[in-house]
């Protein structure tokens, strides 16, 4: 080898020496950078056990979903405001779960990090995944879709869907059999969102125990979450070669075909009949007619992205909230009775059992029940942000590029923020009990400029559906069924929730 090198011309020798020197210099520079990078993040509060391949992820490998949730809670108790967690050897994440640390991030418009981009083939750059100017433009264009005048007619749709849900549950009640809550509620909330978003009328709740769209969304969110926990699947090319990647893309094709067929049908209707004369504007009407300050509307892909985003966020998270609230009420009959008494009082003397727009502000106790249910079983357990501007968290100056996870579930169970955090107690949301509470202590819809644009829509729907259910039935848990929590972007039950419904009237 030495002989071969000496036989080279001086010019070639110089080139080789130069290339080798450059490589060595770059490697040394990278090693120095990584040493500084690792030293900075490893000095932050967090676990010291470190794997060269997995970072800290090896500590949760093999854990059941419930065990992972407990492990995260234990870490929160050990580090009450934030901690560092290595997602592989090169990706530290900061977990925030106290109002003091969460506030600093949520009051900004910082973008979503890489893990959200894993959902791009599904949701595109809709409002959930968009950043920067694209997000700001979409937010301005979509805000009118959630004006109170637009939301008002949707209450009647929630009532119609609730009646179909009552009919389905009545069959189980008549046979004195338990029913699986998530399945029933998911079909109801999908029915609501399909009608409110796109005036799509189909036999969604009568088509069987589930719907292909619900199955697709459940699998997509599961695959999305699992990919985020495995650094070896971060590369798009590698992921597409795996069975999980192929399943993900297959389900993407299905949800896109559904949304595109509905969009195209509406476009053809508009071309044929002109503006709709129906009683209310839906989300798709506003998408198709919205114009920005330059007179530009949304193109076909942007419209599909927003429809896919709204269908996912508008049905899945709401179904989670309602299901877990029913679960908590079934565990606590005293609170269920108080909520029933309030709904009964609001509907007393009326010639209809529908909960109308004017009834919603009267449901004070039910509102506290909903908030407490979302605190205890937060529908969206965590959200994430990427630091693009220098920020300071608890005196620590975070560099640009820092990756932060806001653990809403742990924030809502933080014993330094909430008394008896594991106890279901709607009275904690009485005005006197909340007057001194930090506004960032309870943020189920996020907060700040990137909060959930549809939170009023969701709250209205939850009041109607829960109110109608509680007016009609009393719920008790099926004691032979074990409920296990599962986090996959949305808080679900690994094996569902089963309960009995007893007619009250």
What is the secondary structure topology, with strand pairs?
Blueprint: H1 2-6, H2 10-42, H3 65-78, E1 82-86, E2 92-96, H4 99-106, H5 114-117, H6 120-123, H7 132-142, H8 148-151, H9 154-174, E3 179-180, H10 181-198, H11 212-228, H12 236-241, H13 243-273, H14 283-289, H15 300-331, H16 333-347, H17 364-376, E4 382-386, E5 391-393, E6 396-398, E7 403-407, H18 408-411, H19 431-434, H20 455-472, E8 473-477, E9 485-487, E10 491-493, E11 498-503
Parallel strand pairs: 2-7
Antiparallel strand pairs: 1-2, 3-11, 4-7, 5-6, 8-11, 9-10
Helix pairs in contact: 9-10, 9-20, 10-15, 11-13, 13-15, 15-17, 15-20, 16-17, 16-20
Pfam families: p450
InterPro entries: Cyt_P450, Cyt_P450_CS, Cyt_P450_E_grp-I, Cyt_P450_sf, Cytochrome_P450_Monoox
Family: Belongs to the cytochrome P450 family.
């Amino acid at each position: 080898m030495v002989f071969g090198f000496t036989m080279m011309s001086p010019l070639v020798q110089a080139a080789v020496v130069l290339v080798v020197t450059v490589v060595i210099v770059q490697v040394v520079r990278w090693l120095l950078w990584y040493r500084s990078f690792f030293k900075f993040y490893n000095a932050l509060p967090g676990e010291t056990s470190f794997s060269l391949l997995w970072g800290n992820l090896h500590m949760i490998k093999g854990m059941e979903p419930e065990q992972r949730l407990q492990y995260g809670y234990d870490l929160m108790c050990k580090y009450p405001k934030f901690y560092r967690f290595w997602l592989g050897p090169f990706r530290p994440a900061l977990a925030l779960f106290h109002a003091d640390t969460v506030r600093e991030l949520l009051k900004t418009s910082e973008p979503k990090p890489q893990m959200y981009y894993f959902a791009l083939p599904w949701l595109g750059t809709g409002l959930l995944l968009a950043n920067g100017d694209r997000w700001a433009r979409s937010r301005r264009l979509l805000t009118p879709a959630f004006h109170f005048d637009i939301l008002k007619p949707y209450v009647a749709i929630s009532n119609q869907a609730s009646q179909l849900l009552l009919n389905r549950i009545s069959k189980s009640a008549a046979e004195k059999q338990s029913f699986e809550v998530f399945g029933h509620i998911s079909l109801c909330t999908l029915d609501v969102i399909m009608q409110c978003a796109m005036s799509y009328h189909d036999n969604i709740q009568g088509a069987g125990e589930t719907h292909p769209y619900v199955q697709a969304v459940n699998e997509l969110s599961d695959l999305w979450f699992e990919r985020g926990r495995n650094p070896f699947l971060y590369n798009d090319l590698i992921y597409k070669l795996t069975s999980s990647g192929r399943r993900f893309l297959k389900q993407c094709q299905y949800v896109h075909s559904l949304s595109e067929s509905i969009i195209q049908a509406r476009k053809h209707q508009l071309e044929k009949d002109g503006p709709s004369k129906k009683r209310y504007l839906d989300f798709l009407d506003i998408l198709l007619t919205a114009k920005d300050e330059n007179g530009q509307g949304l193109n076909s892909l942007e419209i599909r992205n927003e429809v896919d985003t709204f269908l996912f966020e508008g049905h899945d998270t709401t179904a989670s909230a309602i299901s877990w609230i029913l679960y908590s009420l079934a565990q606590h009959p005293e609170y269920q009775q108080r909520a029933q008494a309030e709904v009964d009082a609001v509907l007393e003397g009326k010639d209809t059992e529908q909960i109308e727009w004017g009834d919603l502000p009267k449901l004070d106790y039910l509102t506290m029940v909903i908030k407490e249910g979302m605190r205890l079983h937060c529908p969206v357990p965590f959200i994430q942000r990427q630091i693009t501007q220098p920020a300071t968290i608890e005196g620590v100056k975070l560099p640009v590029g820092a990756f932060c996870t806001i653990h809403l579930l742990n924030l809502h169970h933080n014993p330094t923020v909430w008394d008896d955090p594991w106890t279901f107690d709607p009275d904690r949301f009485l005005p006197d009990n909340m007057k001194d509470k930090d506004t960032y202590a309870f943020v189920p819809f996020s907060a700040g400029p990137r909060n959930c644009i549809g939170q009023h829509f969701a709250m209205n729907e939850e009041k109607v559906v829960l109110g109608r259910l509680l007016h009609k039935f009393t719920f008790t848990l099926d004691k032979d069924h074990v409920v296990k929590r599962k986090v996959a972007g949305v808080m679900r039950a690994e094996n569902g929730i089963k309960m009995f419904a007893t007619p009250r009237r």
